[in-house]
Design brief:
This protein has helices at residues 5-28, 94-97, 210-215, 267-275, and strands spanning 31-38, 41-48, 51-57, 63-71, 76-77, 86-89, 104-116, 123-135, 148-151, 156-157, 162-165, 172-173, 176-182, 198-205, 208-209, 229-237, 245-250, 253-259, 285-287, 302-307, 311-319. By secondary structure, the protein is mainly β. The chain has 3 domains: 32-78, Roll (SH3 type barrels); 86-98 and 140-319, Fumarylacetoacetate hydrolase, domain 2, CATH 3.90.850.10; 104-135, no CATH class. The chain is globular and about 95 Å long.
């Protein structure tokens, strides 16, 4: 059997084109990445089952796969990015605002007006009251737009690391949250384009010292103390960020369980809104708020945040040492 040179060349070109197309399809679909350390080397890798395939280049720019692979159990998983900013949302789930209760709230507004009679000089006052009823599962006006606050980048903690309870912190709670990973510089981004600036998502725990949160003027230590931002273990891309089941287990018991479809402000709205005021950079992280009721954690506890399509973030709770 013989083939003309032109036919062979065409056949080769078709094979190459199919291979390239296959590669593109694979990269456009769901993928998971991890930032990890082996020895003194820090790298990014593609999660392939129980192994990591190292990549060369910039995860948020140009990169390529290598033939180097490592068993997940043989590497140290790090916080997924090195962000310039860590931002979080307050009150982004109906269930958290209502604290799980469906009761009615009575709001009474009182208005007092005064008038003076020009002939007698006598002043009279008239007071009127307006009563409104609002169900606790309705969204208060201020939470109908994202309510961001800043966490310190130093609060981030990786997979299997310790959440350290400061001596003066008193009551400290868990908060399971989806975390947005920014992939491109974003400034004044529209909602329609916002998802193009999202690289992926990861798991997070917005650890919160409630006494400090209630009594301090700012939440800088209540939400941003060292180790108060566990994050990881992987970045997931190519999945529906606004429809992921999120669970938190405390010592194996499920304490939170709700879908991100119940967020008041979804991923696109959150990114767009923040970008109108703060320039976001590749690797920046946005915690998207927690659901339902939270509870206290104490030394000796194990906290796990599991999000569909991403994985399980596991951390140990310890007391601050002298």
């Amino acid at each position: 059997m013989s083939l003309r040179l032109g036919s062979v060349s065409s056949f080769v070109l078709v094979v190459v084109a199919l291979a390239v197309a296959s590669t593109c399809v694979a990269q456009d679909g769901p993928m998971k990445f991890a930032r990890f350390q082996t020895g003194e080397t820090v790298s990014y890798g593609i999660v392939e089952g129980d192994r990591l395939r190292q990549i060369d280049g910039d995860l948020f720019g140009d990169w390529k796969q290598t033939d180097k692979t490592f068993a997940l159990e043989d590497v140290t998983l790090l916080v997924p990015t090195e962000p310039t900013q860590v931002i979080a949302l307050a009150g982004n789930y109906h269930s958290h605002i209502a604290a799980g209760e469906k009761t009615s709230t009575t709001i009474v507004t009182t208005t007092t007006t005064t008038s003076t009679d020009l002939n007698t000089g006598k002043t009279t006052s008239n007071t009127t009251s307006k009563t409104e009823y609002r169900s606790s599962d309705e969204v208060p006006e201020k939470f109908r737009m994202p309510q961001p606050f800043f966490k310190s980048p130093s609060c981030l903690a990786p997979q299997e690391s310790d959440i350290v309870i400061p001596k003066e912190a008193d009551t400290v709670h868990f908060e399971a949250e989806l975390v947005i990973v920014i992939g491109r510089e974003a400034k004044n981004v529209s909602m329609a384009e916002a998802l193009n600036y999202v690289f992926g998502v990861t798991c997070g725990n917005d650890v919160s010292a409630r006494v400090w949160q209630r009594n301090d003027v700012q939440w800088w230590r209540a939400k941003g103390a060292d180790t108060f931002g566990p994050c990881g273990p992987f970045i997931a891309t190519g999945i529906d960020y606004d429809n992921l089941l999120t669970k938190l287990r405390l010592n194996g018991k499920v304490m939170q369980e709700e879908s991100t479809s119940h967020m008041i402000n979804d991923v696109a709205k959150t990114v767009s809104f923040i970008s109108q005021h703060v320039t976001l950079h590749p690797g920046d992280l946005i915690f998207t708020g927690t659901s339902g009721k939270t509870a206290a954690i104490k030394p000796g506890d194990v906290v796990e945040v599991e999000i569909e399509g991403i994985g399980v973030l596991r951390n140990h709770v310890v007391a601050q040492q002298d």
